[in-house]
Amino acid sequence: MCYFNRFFWLLLIFFLRVDALININPRLGVSRKMDKQHKPKTSSSPNSVEEVETFYYTQRLDHFNYRPDSYATFQQRYMINSQYWAGPNSSAPIFAYLGAEEPVDDDINVVGFLRENAPQFNALIVYIEHRYYGKSIPFGGSMKRAMKNANSRGYFNSAQAIADYAAVLLQLKERLSAQTSPIIVIGGSYGGMLASWFRLKYPHVALGALASSAPILYFNGVAPQAGYYYIVTKDFKEASESCYQTIRKSWSEIDSVAKMPNGLSILSKTFKTCRKLENSSELRNYLDSIYTDAAQYNKPPNYPVTVMCEAIDAAANKTDTLGQIFEGLVAFNGNKSCYDTNQYNQPTETNIGWGWQSCSEMVMPIGHDRDDTMFPPAPFDMESFVAECRSLYGVLPQPHWVTTYYGGPDLKLILHRFASNIIFSNGLRDPYSSGGVLEDISDSIMAVSTVNGSHCLDILEARPSDPEWLVKQRETEINIIKGWIAKYQADTVALNKQVHH
């Protein structure tokens, strides 16, 4: 996935210069950035040399046109872990992780679902990087160079990305003589959307898809705009009513102090900001991002929302409201010499890339009205959003395209009629579950949800401390996949008998 008082993540994009930055739309992300940064690298890590081999596929720039420039190519990175695979003659499955809006090795560090379950399937594991991220960037391999050019940006979209995945997987099966190996695609967040869309668009390539925390209904008004922030609020309120009330009333107090003589200096000192605040919205937007970050990744065993609320409540008798809020910030971010209100405002590859994606096709209208959350009112304004994107990129966002291309308000009925073999998994504490599929659609399009789960928790590394409900969620998903593969194998045997007769 704030900084317009309408989005929870500050996302940055640029037009003529890389440092011409502005927020656009929520990014998703399988796990918190801090989790990835602090992940220890061990010999058993899947991205170690012993376990993962890196390859590059010569990928076509444009899969859908036949202009001369469409035939340009770039090198797309993918990684293979073959230590569990039974080999080409076994018909053992291929688990394919579909990379999303960041370098694929960022996710390999935290996603454990594939390597932890590959042994029981004797499966081959492949991780494929999304075009324009990591080392899979067209036009010379520089994100800066690719994104500055209006023509080169036009090849950066989800339809091209899933076509890339199809090309890589078909070539991989041919190269490994694995034509009878069924493919299960797996993705989380935006990658979860890609996994579900891949199964819909390329059913001849993928036998099934596990789409973790995929808000495929958060487009074109299908899901309510306030859904995301409503769940953030619910998470805090369930953790502590008094904490919720303190946060709710803190916004007006921040503005009141800001209006005082030397008010911004007072706020800067109270919150130990690394530089003096220029306005109160800078602090409010920073706190907005902190709360939504905590809620989205509110996972065991620590549960960040609970940690924040305990700190806020514990400070009630020794400080004022803003002092309480600061204690919550410290509990979440750690005790630091100062706090960077620009924490969510760095020109990272993810922020730059997702900014463009948000301004083109991935338009997810997230906002909230006056009394439906613990946040100040901030309704989504499509008109100003479109105008801003147009001024930055010279193109109009297409808020209707995702529902046109992949399915819209009647998506559940459509999927019931023609689709199969998709698991939509969600944790109901994840704000993005408000745009997820939470009920079974058919016998083979199934929703696997947990009341206490958070964003993409089911596909992250298993831990000894994982609660029983999380262990069972993963077991349910594995049993469904086993059923798909068993049916595939039975169908293969039956068809072979028909051919020989």
From TrEMBL:
Signal peptide coordinates: 1-20
Q: Which GO terms describe its biological process?
A: proteolysis
User: Which superkingdom is the protein from?
Assistant: Eukaryota
Q: Which Pfam families match?
A: Peptidase_S28
Q: Which GO terms describe its molecular function?
A: dipeptidyl-peptidase activity; serine-type exopeptidase activity
Keyword tags: Glycoprotein, Hydrolase, Protease, Signal
Gene3D superfamilies documented for this protein: alpha/beta hydrolase (3.40.50.1820), Serine carboxypeptidase S28, SKS domain (1.20.120.980)
The Swiss-Prot or TrEMBL record describes its family as follows: Belongs to the peptidase S28 family.
Name it: Lysosomal Pro-X carboxypeptidase
Task: Name the species this protein comes from.
Answer: Acacia crassicarpa (northern wattle)
